[in-house]
Protein backbone atom coordinates (compact mmCIF):
# COMPACT_ATOMS: atom_id res chain seq x y z
CA UNK A 1 0.00 0.00 0.00
CA UNK A 2 0.99 3.60 -0.57
CA UNK A 3 1.16 5.99 2.42
CA UNK A 4 1.31 9.76 2.81
CA UNK A 5 4.04 10.21 5.40
CA UNK A 6 5.64 13.34 4.01
CA UNK A 7 5.96 15.71 1.06
CA UNK A 8 9.57 14.53 0.88
CA UNK A 9 8.24 11.21 -0.44
CA UNK A 10 6.22 12.78 -3.27
CA UNK A 11 7.26 13.69 -6.78
CA UNK A 12 6.21 17.07 -8.18
CA UNK A 13 3.68 15.38 -10.52
CA UNK A 14 2.13 13.54 -7.55
CA UNK A 15 1.71 16.81 -5.63
CA UNK A 16 0.02 18.36 -8.67
CA UNK A 17 -2.15 15.25 -9.10
CA UNK A 18 -3.46 15.57 -5.52
CA UNK A 19 -4.13 19.30 -5.98
CA UNK A 20 -6.01 18.61 -9.22
CA UNK A 21 -8.00 15.77 -7.62
CA UNK A 22 -9.00 18.11 -4.77
CA UNK A 23 -10.65 20.60 -7.16
CA UNK A 24 -13.71 18.35 -7.66
CA UNK A 25 -14.15 18.16 -3.88
CA UNK A 26 -13.88 21.96 -3.52
CA UNK A 27 -16.88 22.13 -5.84
CA UNK A 28 -18.80 19.38 -4.01
CA UNK A 29 -18.16 21.06 -0.66
CA UNK A 30 -19.77 24.28 -1.91
CA UNK A 31 -23.03 22.49 -2.76
CA UNK A 32 -25.93 22.00 -0.36
CA UNK A 33 -25.75 18.22 -0.76
CA UNK A 34 -22.13 17.37 -0.04
CA UNK A 35 -22.39 13.59 -0.16
CA UNK A 36 -20.51 11.21 -2.42
CA UNK A 37 -20.16 7.44 -2.05
CA UNK A 38 -16.58 6.95 -3.29
CA UNK A 39 -15.49 5.45 0.04
CA UNK A 40 -18.77 3.73 1.02
CA UNK A 41 -18.12 0.65 3.15
CA UNK A 42 -14.60 1.71 4.15
CA UNK A 43 -13.52 2.32 7.74
CA UNK A 44 -11.17 5.20 8.48
CA UNK A 45 -9.55 5.57 11.90
CA UNK A 46 -8.27 8.99 13.00
CA UNK A 47 -5.72 8.27 15.75
CA UNK A 48 -4.73 11.59 17.30
CA UNK A 49 -2.10 11.54 20.04
CA UNK A 50 -1.88 15.36 20.04
CA UNK A 51 -4.55 18.06 20.13
CA UNK A 52 -6.10 19.29 16.91
CA UNK A 53 -9.07 21.31 15.72
CA UNK A 54 -8.62 21.80 11.96
CA UNK A 55 -6.85 18.58 10.98
CA UNK A 56 -8.97 16.18 13.00
CA UNK A 57 -12.29 17.79 12.07
CA UNK A 58 -11.42 18.12 8.40
CA UNK A 59 -10.25 14.50 8.13
CA UNK A 60 -13.49 13.43 9.84
CA UNK A 61 -15.63 15.59 7.56
CA UNK A 62 -13.65 14.45 4.51
CA UNK A 63 -14.18 10.75 5.26
CA UNK A 64 -17.88 11.24 6.03
CA UNK A 65 -18.55 13.30 2.90
CA UNK A 66 -17.07 10.44 0.88
CA UNK A 67 -19.36 7.92 2.57
CA UNK A 68 -16.81 6.14 4.79
CA UNK A 69 -17.35 5.09 8.40
CA UNK A 70 -15.04 7.34 10.41
CA UNK A 71 -13.88 6.56 13.93
CA UNK A 72 -11.83 8.97 16.05
CA UNK A 73 -9.38 7.62 18.64
CA UNK A 74 -8.40 10.26 21.17
CA UNK A 75 -5.18 9.28 22.93
CA UNK A 76 -6.30 10.86 26.20
CA UNK A 77 -9.16 8.31 26.43
CA UNK A 78 -7.24 5.36 24.98
CA UNK A 79 -5.14 2.56 26.43
CA UNK A 80 -2.03 4.60 25.52
CA UNK A 81 -2.66 6.11 28.97
CA UNK A 82 -2.28 2.59 30.43
CA UNK A 83 1.18 2.17 28.91
CA UNK A 84 0.39 0.57 25.56
CA UNK A 85 3.17 1.15 23.04
CA UNK A 86 2.64 2.90 19.73
CA UNK A 87 3.40 -0.32 17.84
CA UNK A 88 0.87 -2.33 19.89
CA UNK A 89 -1.69 0.39 19.26
CA UNK A 90 -0.95 0.15 15.52
CA UNK A 91 -1.30 -3.65 15.54
CA UNK A 92 -4.64 -3.25 17.35
CA UNK A 93 -5.97 -0.76 14.81
CA UNK A 94 -4.78 -3.06 12.01
CA UNK A 95 -6.61 -6.04 13.51
CA UNK A 96 -9.84 -4.02 13.32
CA UNK A 97 -9.31 -3.96 9.53
CA UNK A 98 -9.18 -0.21 9.07
CA UNK A 99 -9.00 0.80 5.40
CA UNK A 100 -6.98 3.93 6.21
CA UNK A 101 -5.38 5.24 9.38
CA UNK A 102 -4.72 8.94 9.96
CA UNK A 103 -2.13 9.64 12.66
CA UNK A 104 -1.03 12.71 14.59
CA UNK A 105 1.78 12.13 17.07
CA UNK A 106 4.31 14.20 19.02
CA UNK A 107 7.25 12.09 17.82
CA UNK A 108 8.90 12.68 14.46
CA UNK A 109 8.79 9.44 12.48
CA UNK A 110 5.83 7.95 14.39
CA UNK A 111 3.69 7.82 11.25
CA UNK A 112 6.31 5.91 9.28
CA UNK A 113 6.72 3.48 12.18
CA UNK A 114 3.00 2.70 12.04
CA UNK A 115 2.93 2.62 8.23
CA UNK A 116 5.55 -0.13 8.34
CA UNK A 117 3.34 -2.24 10.66
CA UNK A 118 -0.13 -2.05 9.13
CA UNK A 119 -1.80 -3.30 5.95
CA UNK A 120 -3.64 -0.12 4.98
CA UNK A 121 -2.59 3.36 3.85
CA UNK A 122 -1.37 5.63 6.66
CA UNK A 123 -1.74 9.39 6.40
CA UNK A 124 0.45 11.71 8.44
CA UNK A 125 -1.62 14.38 10.21
CA UNK A 126 1.53 15.84 11.78
CA UNK A 127 4.43 13.98 13.41
CA UNK A 128 6.56 15.95 15.87
CA UNK A 129 8.64 18.55 14.06
CA UNK A 130 8.99 16.33 10.97
CA UNK A 131 6.13 16.80 8.48
CA UNK A 132 2.49 17.80 8.10
CA UNK A 133 1.98 16.92 4.43
CA UNK A 134 -1.76 17.60 4.09
CA UNK A 135 -1.18 21.08 5.53
CA UNK A 136 1.38 21.88 2.82
CA UNK A 137 -0.94 20.49 0.13
CA UNK A 138 -3.90 22.55 1.34
CA UNK A 139 -1.66 25.62 1.55
CA UNK A 140 -0.55 25.09 -2.07
CA UNK A 141 -4.17 24.66 -3.18
CA UNK A 142 -5.30 27.80 -1.30
CA UNK A 143 -2.44 29.76 -2.85
CA UNK A 144 -3.14 28.41 -6.34
CA UNK A 145 -6.83 29.36 -6.05
CA UNK A 146 -6.06 32.83 -4.65
CA UNK A 147 -3.62 33.48 -7.51
CA UNK A 148 -6.19 32.20 -10.03
CA UNK A 149 -8.75 34.63 -8.57
CA UNK A 150 -6.27 37.41 -9.26
CA UNK A 151 -6.02 36.33 -12.88
CA UNK A 152 -2.86 34.26 -12.55
CA UNK A 153 -3.98 30.62 -12.78
CA UNK A 154 -0.85 28.48 -12.76
CA UNK A 155 0.44 25.17 -11.46
CA UNK A 156 3.87 26.66 -11.34
CA UNK A 157 4.97 28.95 -8.51
CA UNK A 158 8.23 29.89 -10.28
CA UNK A 159 8.98 33.56 -9.66
CA UNK A 160 6.95 33.59 -6.43
CA UNK A 161 8.75 34.41 -3.18
CA UNK A 162 7.19 32.99 -0.02
CA UNK A 163 8.41 34.14 3.40
CA UNK A 164 7.68 31.72 6.25
CA UNK A 165 8.24 33.34 9.64
CA UNK A 166 7.96 31.90 13.13
CA UNK A 167 9.20 28.98 15.17
CA UNK A 168 10.80 27.17 12.24
CA UNK A 169 12.77 24.84 14.54
CA UNK A 170 9.70 23.03 15.84
CA UNK A 171 7.51 23.45 12.76
CA UNK A 172 6.46 20.46 10.70
CA UNK A 173 4.35 22.92 8.70
CA UNK A 174 7.46 24.89 7.73
CA UNK A 175 9.32 21.74 6.67
CA UNK A 176 6.45 20.36 4.57
CA UNK A 177 5.79 23.76 3.02
CA UNK A 178 9.46 24.27 2.18
CA UNK A 179 9.49 20.95 0.31
CA UNK A 180 6.13 21.49 -1.38
CA UNK A 181 6.63 25.13 -2.41
CA UNK A 182 10.10 24.38 -3.76
CA UNK A 183 8.78 21.40 -5.71
CA UNK A 184 6.28 23.79 -7.32
CA UNK A 185 9.04 26.28 -8.20
CA UNK A 186 8.73 28.95 -5.48
CA UNK A 187 11.63 30.63 -3.71
CA UNK A 188 11.25 30.08 0.04
CA UNK A 189 12.61 32.38 2.72
CA UNK A 190 12.63 31.15 6.31
CA UNK A 191 12.76 33.69 9.13
CA UNK A 192 13.11 33.00 12.87
CA UNK A 193 15.09 34.09 15.91
CA UNK A 194 18.48 32.29 15.79
CA UNK A 195 17.44 29.89 18.59
CA UNK A 196 14.35 28.83 16.63
CA UNK A 197 16.04 28.17 13.27
CA UNK A 198 17.17 24.58 12.61
CA UNK A 199 20.90 24.24 12.04
CA UNK A 200 21.66 23.27 8.44
CA UNK A 201 18.25 24.23 7.01
CA UNK A 202 19.97 26.33 4.33
CA UNK A 203 21.16 23.03 2.83
CA UNK A 204 17.51 22.37 1.94
CA UNK A 205 17.65 25.36 -0.39
CA UNK A 206 15.91 27.88 1.87
CA UNK A 207 17.06 31.48 2.19
CA UNK A 208 17.62 32.00 5.92
CA UNK A 209 16.80 35.28 7.71
CA UNK A 210 16.74 36.48 11.30
CA UNK A 211 15.64 40.03 10.45
CA UNK A 212 11.91 39.92 9.66
CA UNK A 213 11.83 43.22 7.77
CA UNK A 214 14.59 41.99 5.46
CA UNK A 215 12.80 38.65 5.00
CA UNK A 216 9.61 40.47 4.02
CA UNK A 217 11.19 42.74 1.41
CA UNK A 218 9.38 42.14 -1.87
CA UNK A 219 7.78 38.84 -0.72
CA UNK A 220 4.65 37.78 -2.61
CA UNK A 221 3.32 35.58 0.19
CA UNK A 222 3.85 35.79 3.95
CA UNK A 223 3.12 32.67 5.99
CA UNK A 224 3.13 33.18 9.75
CA UNK A 225 3.66 30.40 12.31
CA UNK A 226 3.03 30.37 16.05
CA UNK A 227 5.57 29.71 18.81
CA UNK A 228 5.20 26.02 19.71
CA UNK A 229 5.83 26.47 23.42
CA UNK A 230 4.62 22.90 24.05
CA UNK A 231 7.84 21.71 22.34
CA UNK A 232 10.14 24.13 24.21
CA UNK A 233 10.51 22.44 27.58
CA UNK A 234 13.81 23.50 29.15
CA UNK A 235 14.37 26.07 26.41
CA UNK A 236 14.34 29.87 26.62
CA UNK A 237 10.86 31.09 25.64
CA UNK A 238 10.65 34.70 24.43
CA UNK A 239 7.92 36.82 25.97
CA UNK A 240 4.90 37.47 23.74
CA UNK A 241 5.65 41.22 23.80
CA UNK A 242 9.30 40.80 22.86
CA UNK A 243 8.46 38.28 20.14
CA UNK A 244 5.75 40.50 18.66
CA UNK A 245 8.15 43.45 18.57
CA UNK A 246 10.68 41.54 16.46
CA UNK A 247 8.64 38.95 14.56
CA UNK A 248 4.96 39.93 14.74
CA UNK A 249 3.23 40.69 11.44
CA UNK A 250 1.69 44.16 11.70
CA UNK A 251 0.04 46.26 8.97
CA UNK A 252 3.07 48.51 8.98
CA UNK A 253 5.50 45.62 8.57
CA UNK A 254 3.43 44.06 5.80
CA UNK A 255 4.19 47.19 3.73
CA UNK A 256 7.74 45.82 3.30
CA UNK A 257 6.33 42.93 1.27
CA UNK A 258 5.14 43.19 -2.34
CA UNK A 259 2.04 45.31 -2.88
CA UNK A 260 -0.98 42.98 -2.42
CA UNK A 261 1.16 40.24 -0.84
CA UNK A 262 -1.01 37.39 0.44
CA UNK A 263 -1.07 36.46 4.13
CA UNK A 264 -1.31 32.85 5.32
CA UNK A 265 -1.37 31.07 8.68
CA UNK A 266 -2.00 27.35 9.24
CA UNK A 267 -3.68 28.03 12.61
CA UNK A 268 -4.06 27.97 15.49
CA UNK A 269 -3.26 31.71 15.58
CA UNK A 270 -2.05 33.65 18.56
CA UNK A 271 -3.46 37.06 17.66
CA UNK A 272 -1.28 39.90 18.88
CA UNK A 273 1.79 37.65 19.10
CA UNK A 274 2.92 36.40 15.64
CA UNK A 275 0.11 38.18 13.77
CA UNK A 276 -2.08 41.20 14.43
CA UNK A 277 -5.84 40.84 14.09
CA UNK A 278 -6.12 43.59 11.49
CA UNK A 279 -3.69 41.63 9.26
CA UNK A 280 -5.24 38.21 9.89
CA UNK A 281 -8.67 39.59 8.99
CA UNK A 282 -7.72 41.58 5.85
CA UNK A 283 -10.42 40.62 3.37
CA UNK A 284 -8.40 41.12 0.20
CA UNK A 285 -5.03 39.81 1.45
CA UNK A 286 -5.53 37.14 4.12
CA UNK A 287 -6.37 33.65 2.82
CA UNK A 288 -6.44 32.01 6.25
CA UNK A 289 -10.07 30.88 6.11
CA UNK A 290 -9.57 29.70 2.54
CA UNK A 291 -6.75 27.49 3.82
CA UNK A 292 -9.22 25.85 6.20
CA UNK A 293 -11.77 25.37 3.39
CA UNK A 294 -9.15 23.75 1.16
CA UNK A 295 -8.17 21.45 4.03
CA UNK A 296 -11.37 19.43 3.69
CA UNK A 297 -11.00 19.07 -0.09
CA UNK A 298 -7.33 18.08 0.12
CA UNK A 299 -8.07 15.45 2.77
CA UNK A 300 -10.90 14.07 0.63
CA UNK A 301 -8.47 13.81 -2.29
CA UNK A 302 -5.80 12.10 -0.18
CA UNK A 303 -8.24 9.56 1.31
CA UNK A 304 -9.71 8.83 -2.11
CA UNK A 305 -6.41 8.48 -3.97
CA UNK A 306 -4.65 6.43 -1.28
CA UNK A 307 -7.50 3.89 -0.99
CA UNK A 308 -7.91 3.40 -4.74
CA UNK A 309 -5.63 0.36 -4.86
CA UNK A 310 -7.69 -1.46 -2.20
CA UNK A 311 -10.93 -0.47 -3.96
CA UNK A 312 -9.71 -1.85 -7.26
CA UNK A 313 -9.70 1.62 -8.82
CA UNK A 314 -6.67 2.63 -10.81
CA UNK A 315 -4.55 4.82 -8.54
CA UNK A 316 -0.97 5.55 -7.68
CA UNK A 317 1.81 3.14 -8.48
CA UNK A 318 3.01 1.30 -5.37
N1 LIG B 1 -3.03 23.60 11.16
C1 LIG B 1 -3.27 22.59 12.02
O1 LIG B 1 -2.68 21.51 11.95
O2 LIG B 1 -4.22 22.88 12.96
P1 LIG B 1 -4.72 21.88 14.12
O3 LIG B 1 -3.57 21.71 15.06
O4 LIG B 1 -5.90 22.59 14.73
O5 LIG B 1 -5.10 20.58 13.47
TrEMBL record:
It is an enzyme of class 2 (transferase). Carbamoyl phosphate binds at residues 54-55, 104, 132, 135, 267-268. Residues 2-145 form the Aspartate/ornithine carbamoyltransferase carbamoyl-P binding domain. Its EC number is 2.1.3.2. InterPro entries: Asp/Orn_carbamoyltranf_P-bd, Asp/Orn_carbamoylTrfase, Asp/Orn_carbamoylTrfase_sf, Asp_carbamoyltransf, Asp_carbamoyltransf_Asp/Orn-bd. It comes from the Bacteria. L-aspartate binds at residues 82, 172, 226. It catalyses: carbamoyl phosphate + L-aspartate = N-carbamoyl-L-aspartate + phosphate + H(+). Residues 159-305 form the Aspartate/ornithine carbamoyltransferase Asp/Orn-binding domain. Keywords: Pyrimidine biosynthesis, Transferase. Gene3D superfamilies: Aspartate/ornithine carbamoyltransferase. Belongs to the aspartate/ornithine carbamoyltransferase superfamily. ATCase family. Heterododecamer (2C3:3R2) of six catalytic PyrB chains organized as two trimers (C3), and six regulatory PyrI chains organized as three dimers (R2). Catalyzes the condensation of carbamoyl phosphate and aspartate to form carbamoyl aspartate and inorganic phosphate, the committed step in the de novo pyrimidine nucleotide biosynthesis pathway. Reversibly catalyzes the transfer of the carbamoyl group from carbamoyl phosphate (CP) to the N(epsilon) atom of ornithine (ORN) to produce L-citrulline. This is Aspartate carbamoyltransferase.
Amino acid sequence: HRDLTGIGRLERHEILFLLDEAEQWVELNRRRNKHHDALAGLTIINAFFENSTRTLLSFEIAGKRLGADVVNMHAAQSSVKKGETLIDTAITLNAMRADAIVIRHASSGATQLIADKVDCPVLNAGDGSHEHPTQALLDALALREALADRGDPSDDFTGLTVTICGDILHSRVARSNLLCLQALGATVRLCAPPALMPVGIAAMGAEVFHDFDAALRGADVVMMLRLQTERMEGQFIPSAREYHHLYGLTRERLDNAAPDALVMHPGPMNRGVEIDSDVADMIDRSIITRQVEMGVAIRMACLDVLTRGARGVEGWAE
